[in-house]
Design a protein that fits this description.
Blueprint lengths: L1 E3 L2 E4 L2 E4 L3 E3 L5 E9 L6 E11 L2 E10 L4 E10 L7 E4 L5 E8 L2 E7 L5 E8 L6 E4 L5 E4 L2 E2 L26
Antiparallel strand pairs: 1-4, 2-3, 5-6, 6-7, 7-8, 9-10, 10-11, 11-12, 12-15, 13-14
Length: about 170
Amino acid sequence: PYTVTARLEWGNKVFQSTRLFLDVVPGYELGQISVGMPGSGGVRLFSLRSLNRQRMDRIFVRIDDEEEGQCFGVVELGQLIRLFKPVMEVDAAGDVHILHQCGPGQFCHSVVSPDGNVVSQDYFLADLNAIHLEQAEDGDWVVKGAQPLKPSAPPAPADQKAAPASDAEKPVKK
């Protein structure tokens, strides 16, 4: 474990935070894909990883430039259910599309740019055997065999009850 303390000196004053303890762990690698960078000629390695914390699996993507030895970031994509093997595909812009199961019958489609930004994240309801990524004519990847979950928000953890509907969502009795 590492210990981190922030210290700031400003004028004649010193500000110091409390100590924070953290672990740096690599996670379990689920797969990887190399992406050629349009225009620059470089290559980025996207590594899909999982980590179990507080009795729940979480899924992350790590983006590295192996030639430069630089990590562009690690992005958490949410909860992971291991019944469906996550899928990664690259589109024409160099963005990586990741499809993983995030709840019972619920799936997440994330698009991550080569610099580590989450471009989009959409949620779907589907059967394990039906959902898949399919390449469109324009080179983009789309989810097929599923129904969009509206609103597109992450599902509540399995051990958490759904929040009650607000007054605006309740039917009006006449």
